[in-house]
From TrEMBL:
Higher taxonomy: Bacteria, Bacillati, Actinomycetota, Actinomycetes, Kitasatosporales
Gene Ontology biological-process entries: carbohydrate metabolic process
GO MF entry, a single one: hydrolase activity
Presence of keyword Signal: yes
Protein name according to UniProt: Glycosyl hydrolase
Keyword Mitochondrion: no
Pfam families documented for this protein: Glyco_hydro_76
Domain of life: Bacteria
Length: 616
């Protein structure tokens, strides 16, 4: 692929000019649009969780011009002190490394009898739109001046842009090199630290090598163009860039993509490798890529209500198994932004009535599962309380007057099915395990589990069908992996709570059937009926397999079974080998066959498979 580097070089040089001390009022600018991440622009600085001063103050004709940053909020504000009436202060924010900027953000003037003032807070980055920003404080007091920009470099933990490739923990070349006029341009990745550098070889003096970094999978790279541009020295034939990060946790940007680009000195055009995301671990690579679809403005994965709950659960499971807390903020953001009331069509096709509750009983249950997982990760009581509130609502639809028990699927009481009741057994016994001294939820769990066993939901072959007929018989409808998995998980947890062998025996029988039956496993790979031939899974079905492996992993942990562990590893190996692209995006068919759909739902399912296999 050919690129013309002279425009990129212009963008690279622009910040050098913009970093000058005294500047004119901004002319190369664009209108500001409100940005929301953990909070929205114009938050009062009194609400900041921290204050740091990452760049030196600027002396502006005796006034103190200062940039304030709260990293936990990912926001900044500006102040001016030792001033006079009419002195003003504001922020500039740039999305292209200082080439252009949104000017005069929060402009405030010193009122009469005061000597200073400050702006409101503004976001440093815009993760929803995959933009990494730079911010500076500017003032006007008989002249205009600005501080330096923050943050011109990306840091991921102790590692920051600009490190020497000699310090890299590894040297992987995950995509083919590209050639240009006899030069070889290659991308090198330190997978462990999610960092990269570029190398040009077989060249001559004046040849150039650089990296591009994109936060939106290679669609744009205005903030990350021409990183580490380096020329081949006289008498040499090779050169390399510095190391650059692909994750910006401070800016809530994960899964950045990089490519290596270069040019031969006598020609303007350049050539680039393919884009790549690093793979520090399989599961972490999947989690980072998944976060590119998270909507921090609204706090969910847009357009699917229950799927977002299951996706959050998969993300939390990854965090618990890996011991990482990169995404705790997303757990909190999802809770805070979605706990309220929403009309039909905003979050779900049904109205959401508060506390994640709607007429679809199973939708509410999925959110209770997510908050129990969040409680286990963070130990925050509010998540456990929310799970109790939701499950109390669900309990209101337990009805012994039809089929002798069971929870209705919907508020209209039209159907009793496997998903709603598998979730209910799991939730009640899980609450019993987490609430000290509980007897009520434990009793409900046993009643629900025993009803499930006698309900007919489990067919004679050991496969769970979708639900019951109006006459309370197994309806013979499609066997889905998530119904099978929920039953495996429910009876595993019920065994943990009671110690009764019949529950563990049931969980193992259901798991063994899933592993051996062509209804769910083909050639050793978990396969839905919609994963075969020319069929396509709908948005719900895309995520079923991730639910199954979550609960099979629980059974594997409970039993220490080598068979279950090997099966989980087989799923992860197949997903990784056949169902992944260079940007660590995964499809719905874990055997990699076509037609293969790919979106955040399939990504979450694959994350479940990779997480379940870690450490086995």
């Amino acid at each position: 692929m050919a690129v013309r580097p002279h425009r990129i070089l212009g963008a690279f040089l622009a910040p050098v000019v913009a970093l000058a001390g005294l500047v004119a009022l901004p002319t190369a600018a664009r209108a500001a649009t409100s940005v929301c991440a953990l909070a929205c622009d114009t938050l009062d600085p009194s609400k900041a969780r921290q204050v740091t001063f990452p760049v030196p103050d600027r002396n502006l004709n005796g006034r103190v011009l200062r940039l304030h940053v709260s990293d936990p909020d990912d926001m900044a504000w500006a102040s001016v002190d030792n001033g006079s009436t009419g002195d003003s202060v504001w922020l500039d924010r740039s999305w292209d490394r200082g080439a252009t900027w949104e000017p005069l953000l929060g402009k405030a003037s010193v009122p009469g009898s005061w000597t200073g003032t400050r702006t409101l807070m503004y976001n440093l980055t815009d993760p929803q739109n995959h933009r990494r920003g730079w911010v500076r404080a500017c003032g006007d007091a008989a002249g205009v001046s600005c501080t330096a920009w923050v943050y011109p470099t990306v840091c991921d933990g102790a590692f920051c842009d600009g490190a020497d490739p000699a310090t890299a923990a590894g040297d992987d070349t995950p995509v083919p090199s590209t050639t240009l006029y006899g030069r070889t341009i290659s991308l090198h990745v330190d997978q462990r630290d999610s960092a990269a550098w570029g190398v040009i070889a077989g060249g001559g003096a004046g040849d150039e090598i650089w990296l591009d970094r994109s936060w939106d999978e290679g669609a744009t790279w205005t903030e990350g163009s021409s990183l580490g541009r380096t020329s081949v020295s006289p008498g040499a034939t090779t050169a390399r860039t510095a190391l650059f990060a692909t994750r910006d946790p401070r800016g809530l940007l994960y899964g950045g993509a990089v490519r290596a680009c270069g040019r031969e000195s006598a020609h303007q055009e350049g050539s680039c490798t393919a884009w790549v995301r690093p793979t520090p671990t399989r599961a972490r690579a999947a989690a980072d890529a998944l976060m590119a679809s998270y909507n921090p403005y609204e706090g969910w994965w847009r357009s699917s209500w229950w799927n977002s709950a299951a996706t959050l659960t998969a993300l939390v499971d990854f965090a618990r198994r890996s011991g990482r807390h990169d995404y705790d903020w997303a757990v909190a953001r999802t809770f805070e932004q979605n706990r309220g009331v929403f009309p039909a069509g905003v979050r779900s096709g049904d109205p959401v009535e508060g506390h994640f509750i709607s007429r679809a009983i199973d939708d509410a249950e999925w959110w209770a599962v997510a908050w129990l997982a969040a409680y286990d990760l963070t130990h925050e009581q509010r998540y456990l309380d929310e799970a109790v509130t939701i499950t109390e609502y669900v309990r209101g639809y337990w009805d012994t007057g039809t089929c002798g028990g069971g929870v209705w699927w919907d508020r209209e009481r039209t159907y009793k099915n496997a998903v709603t009741n598998g979730l209910y057994v799991w939730l009640t016994t899980s609450l019993h395990q987490r609430i000290a001294g509980d007897t009520a939820w434990g009793g409900r769990a046993v009643a629900a589990g025993d009803w499930y066993l006698g309900s007919g939901l489990i067919g004679p072959s050991g496969l769970v069908n979708d639900g019951l007929t109006g006459g309370c018989a197994n309806n013979g409808q499609t066997v889905w992996s998530y119904n099978q998995g929920l039953a495996v998980g429910a009876f595993t947890e019920l065994w943990r709570s009671t110690g009764r062998s019949r529950y563990l025996d049931t969980a193992k029988r259901l798991a063994d059937t899933a592993l051996s039956s062509s209804a769910l496993t083909r050639d050793g790979v978990l396969t839905e009926s919609c994963d075969t031939g020319t069929s396509r899974c709908d948005d719900n079905q895309k995520q079923f397999k991730g639910v199954f492996v979550r609960h099979l992993a629980d059974l594997a942990d409970a039993t220490g079974s080598a068979v279950y562990a090997a099966y989980l590893k087989r799923q992860a190996d197949s997903v990784w080998a056949t169902d992944r692209d260079a940007l660590n995006r995964f499809g719905g068919r874990w055997a990699g066959t076509a037609p293969n759909q790919r979106d955040w739902r399939t990504q979450a399912g694959a994350l479940g498979a990779l997480t379940a296999a870690e450490g086995r």
